Each structure stands twice: as structure tokens, then as C-alpha cells.
Amino acid sequence: MPDTDKILVVEDDRKIVDLLAIHLNDLGFVVDKAYTGSCGLEKALSKTYRLIILDLMLPEIDGLEICKRIRSENKYTPILMLTARSEEIDKVLGLEIGADDYITKPFGIREFIARVKVILRRIELEKEKNAHDENQVIIESGPLTIDIERHKVIVDGNSIELTAKEFDLLVLFARHPGRIYSREKLLELVWGYNYDGYEHTVNSHINRLRNKIEKDPTNPIFIKTLWGVGYRFQIPEEINV
User: Which of 239, 191, 176, 179 is closest to 213 using CA atoms?
Assistant: First the structure.
């Protein structure tokens, strides 16, 4: 069975790992297991997985650091974080670093399976959309060029490094110039889940995105804010450089 049919579970509680493995096997996946952060990170960076299930609290290297390292290597494997913590900051940090979803312990197995299916379905829909949208493999807007297949962004001839979620946000905006998106809608479309109460995560991602692609982030030419409404990507004719 190829690696793309595998799911990596990084969790130090072996009973939880065994339970999740049973239900993931029922979905047709082979489960690769890691019980320490260092082992999980090594496997995540050396193999290709359909999904990584990542505990927040791990021996040796914690889940947030692993998530950060995975995204720094430009790996776009979806990540579902497990956390026993209830503090909002941990959830927000995980999402901002690049996790696709989180679930708080203790959780029911039905909720877990539902989260897994939502993530995998969203990834499949994105692949189908990209496969049928050949005219938008490369998007150009003024000095900005986005190579979707290669996950590359160039502004004024300079290559820009973006996190997975920053890239997803930019592609969504650039594919629909002129369209206005609320923070709630962006959470739904980019994160693929209803993160009620976490709209400020969108703000922080857009601020970082502006810092990377705008000459003057305080006076952006690409992503405009419509106060009290949402955000809008300028159509090419409106971009003044």
C-alpha cells in the first residue's frame, strides 16, 4: 500500500493510539505510530501521509514545535491536533502555525472520525478543483505571481515564503478578485471548519500575509479591508504599484 494511504498518529498514550488505529483501519488506512515528538517529527518529514494526527503534549518535542517544523519544510500534509488543554491560546497557536483542525480530549470516537472525514474531504475537493481549473495554475496580478502547483509566490521578482494557511488564503483571494469575504467565511473556506469565536485568527494571518507581499502593509495594494464587512482582493486593473 503506498504511503499516501497512510495516516501518522503521534501520541504518547498507547491506548489512545491503538483505539484510533482500529477506527482508522476501518476507514481503509494503514496507521503509522509514533510515541515521542522526535520520532513523530522524523516520520512526518521523511514520509508522505494523507493526514497527521498530532498530540499537543509530547515527550522530547511538543506538538506545536512539530507542526511548525513540518510547515517550515513546505509540507502541506493536513494536521489534526489533539489537546488536553482548554486554554484558547493553545488552539489559536496551533491553527496559526498551520494545523487544519483540533479536537480536545476527552473526545468521542464519532466526533474524531467526523473531523478526519471533513479534513480529508476538503483536501480532495481542493485537488479536484485545482485539477479542473487548469487556467488558474498560475495567477498573475500586477507584480504578484502565484504558482499553485509548485506552491510558489513571487512579488516583484522576489520569491516569498508563505505558510500553508497564508498560501491558501492568498490563492482564494487571487482566484476571486473583487469578491468580499467576511472573517467567518474565510474560516469556513480556508480552514474547512466552523471555528466559532476564532475570527481573530484570520486577522493575524492576513496581517502576516500583508507583511510578506505588500510594499507597505499599512497601505496595502492587494488585500483591502472593508471595515465591518471583511476583506477584498483588488482586481488587477485597480492595483497601483
Answer: 239
